[in-house]
Amino acid sequence: MASSSKRPRSDQPGLPPRKPSRPYSRQFLTKHNETYFATVSSRKFILERRVELEDDEAPEFQNELTRRHWDKLGSYPLPANIAVVKEFYANALRPEEAIVPYTSYVRGVRVPFDAHTINKFLGTTLRPDEQCEYGQFEGGAIAVEVAEATMCMPGTSFHRNRAQQPLHVKRRDLLPVARIWSALIHANILPCSHVSDLHWSRAMLMHCIMTGRTVDIGFIMFIYDLDIKSSKCYFIY
Known about the structure:
This protein has helices spanning 31-41, 59-67, 82-92, 115-122, 144-151, 176-189, 200-210, 217-227; strands at residues 44-47, 103-106, 109-112, 159-160, 166-170, 197-199, 233-236. It is an alpha+beta fold. The chain has a three-stranded antiparallel beta sheet with strand order 4-5-6. A two-stranded parallel ribbon has the order 1-7. The protein has a two-stranded antiparallel sheet with strand order 2-3. Strand 2 (103-106) and strand 3 (109-112) form a beta hairpin. The longest helix is centred in the last third of the chain and has 14 residues, at 176-189. It is globular and about 60 Å long. Residues 1-11 have low confidence and may be disordered. InterPro entries: Transposase_32_dom. Pfam families: Transposase_32 (PF20167).
């Protein structure tokens, strides 16, 4: 007679997947994560940048950064440990459904990276009566001319495709304060290695910032973290 204490298999339909009893090693959660580490190591890492301005320089930018409690976004205190960052991204891969989602594992320590945790770390949690307004513009529901008036130098505009859809604008064509916001977005919020242009997807975020709309920065960075799991570069917090 078969024993009734036999543990259910994770591949049996209708049954919860089996949780790993212990980490594979101090560095990696599973063997699969260890293998994935080689892939992570081959990719480019983008370092965050400090915002270094004089007290009387770009007051419009500095006042808005303070109003939003985004000071930590531009003032990371210590340089990143690249080896630890690589382990974080390698262990963020979820080969087993039982592993808690949006949580990585670094040197034996559980490291969550959900929107709530990011906001708590940065001190940017929205009040209960606040709602992120950026989501209203994600689908492109903003007139290009309105965005151009917000961030572009007079006489300049976004480059468009044949269907007249906005693509990008050259950094040199941005207003001075918009160039600072562009640098912060490209380095510390939605990072990318190509920073000479501001693409439309990032321009919508910058429009929301520059027009004082509510932005859930933790959620935006969290979604970006999920996207870059399959990209060729990684962001270092």
